[in-house]
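Entry 14. Structure prediction run on the chain below.
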Amino acid sequence: WDVIEDESKANRWLLLMAYMVGLSIGVHLLNLVALPALGLIYYFKKFKTSVWGIIATLAISGGLVLFINDFIVPGLPTIAGHFEVFFVNTLGLFFGSGALVFFLLVVGGLAYGIYATQKQGRVVLNTFLLATTFILIGYASYTTVLIRSNYDTLINENAPKDVMSFIRYLKREQYGSRPLLYGAYFTARPVDIKYGAPIYTKGKDKYEISDRKFSYVYEEGSETLLPRAWSSDQAQAYKSAMGLRTYKDAQGREQIVQPTFGQNLTFMFQHQIGTMYMRYFMWNFAGRESDEQGADWLSPIGAAKDVPAALATNKGRNNFFMIPFVLGLIGMFYQFVKDTKNFSVVALLFVMLGVAIVVYLNSPPTEPRERDYIYAGSYYAYAFWIGLAVIGLYELLGMVIKNGRVAAIAASLIGLAAPAIMAAEGWDDHDRSNRYFSVDSAHNYLNSCGPQAVIYTGGDNDTFPLWYAQEVEGNRTDMRAVVLSYYNTDWYIEQTMRKAYESEPIPYTLSKHQYRQGGPNDYLMYADFKVKSIDAKEFIGLISKDYAQLRDDDRNLVPSRIFTLNIDKADLRARGIIPARLDSLLVDQMQIRLLKNTLEKKDLAILDFLVTNNWERPIYLNQTSLSQINIDLSPYAIQEGNAYRILPIRNPRQDREYLVDTEKTYDNMINKFRYRELDNEKVYYSEDYRNFVLNHRSALNSLAEALVDEGQMEKANTVLEFSITKMPDRVIPYDHTTASLVDLFFQVGQKEKALEIAKLLGDRAEEMATYLVDENTGLSQELRRNIFILNSLQQTLYENGEMELGKKYEDAFNNLLARLQIGGAVDRGDY
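Output returned:
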């Protein structure tokens, strides 16, 4: 567009850009922040440059961003929703009639506007209307979601099957929102609830109000402009990051002092912009200490320091000698001097795709994973300047070297140093070849379970590989993987009521209507009915009958903290469900404790299934899901590989987290599981990936421990040797879960192996912990892990008569704790 002189032809490129913007909305809204930079390009070509002109251009460009982000994306669907409800509920027309009328009005209005402005010769307005039309054509690609959803695909997130649910999907209501310009601090206490617009759900012949939107009203003085410390879920993380004090309230509970506005802004500049953006920026153009979460950027001075071997050999440790960063600065300065207009375009792109996104996203202090990929557009803009540095260097060298060809070659070689060193340093930790464990772990989870089993998973990393294994590889399609993060929604519970592959529907006593969103079972508060326990089957029955005495306004209540489930022992034994080794632990009655004051919909659904199923289908959870439910099933969780089956067998031991069906677990983990390439040191496993592998190492440890308890020493030794052979330290480094491995090797009579691992693990932990304390990193998760290892090892070594080595690690442990106590970072009682 910029180089075409014929305006009629140039405008076609504007329309193509508009169409691309519309399409991009379906990928991510971040593309919109590039519009101010495009606005400057348009202004510099069309108008004489002035300060006020640039300000006006940026204001108009910002207005375009708001027009698309606030009107087209959520606004048009909202208006369509109002039309839909009016035409269906008030006029009694068919479902979809209101949206259809609104669609025809929009199309008709745009068509008339384009025709009229064409006739009147109003080029700018005509181009604007055409561009809006092309944005909407691109945005209309979202209708494929509606089409797909109505085919009832097995994985149908949010189920946007009708007009109203589709509109909520387009408005991204399922993701919630974060305060941007005004909102409450994380310490704020709600004093009231303000109810807003109704939420409509498709009924039999009209839309029904299933719930209402609401917002909290906070006590005066607890809200602020530009709230940066807002998430009450991460109160302790804010306290640590901002150095906030605590106090005791009237009930003696510890509360965190509300941040000042200055502390709020300091958090934005130091953490959100500094740690969550500039650190990532320097990762990409200067270097990175390691692939551990929270790792800092690496300067040439930092790279020259002595560091622990674990850091020095980490494939994620990249030292670019700041060459890409310096070249970018050279290119930035060169463009600023030579071409101020285009410099302002690139600079605006750099800021809008970097710092502006930081402010807009308003990230909390901790994230599940590093988020550097969010700012890839900003790094892309900086890479322009690295390229322009070559031209700048060529001109600079040309002043010294009279031979132009030599100057060009020299400048090119210097410029090529950036991608060359980035490839040389970064290739090994970006190489994903021969990495199969995401698929293998899914195979292992699925094959831990019995026929027609249901396994509850905790989140994305637990679930998506299982869905892939079933959908793509056809693995264990008789099973159902149910993800708890969706299980609080009516649409997902409804999907579990349908057959999937060869997996039969999950049976429930409660109906689809009783699990509806906004109904009485979204969450059930505990109320003290002075009842010691309630039969789970009776409780579910009362809920299914809408028992009035269990209702408080529009919510059902939980009358006791303990649910009981009576067990027919003879029936279970006759069906061969109970493992012979654990038969003596079979109980007459399960007692399931409520862990919090609320029974969420997912907990109710699990309890419903447990009661209704009557042990017909095996029920499993993994370690993540066991910790995410509000009913305590862990005493009845039996390890059968990498999954835990729920059976009426109670764990009698306080020193064992779970019982283990050693026969099934041994067969699954040793004979059936896949561990491809986990012993190949050429394969790169990132920290996230390594942590996923450690679940298997931990499960093997639990198996070995159970075999030792049963006196099967030879089999336990086989498991231990299998573990360190399949997942050796040189590929998956020993960690805090391996500390128990030392004691197990002692118990099976492998003293030399136990000492070998103890020395390797202990020396590494001491070296890393000392380094972290020396660097004054604070009490990081990594430091905690290494201190734990030293404490665990010294206890194990003393218990097994290795006094000298035990004393060595005890001294190291005490020395580190003393140093941390002096710094006020730790209470000795923590360990």
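The longest helix spans residues 261-285.
Filed with the rest of this week's runs.
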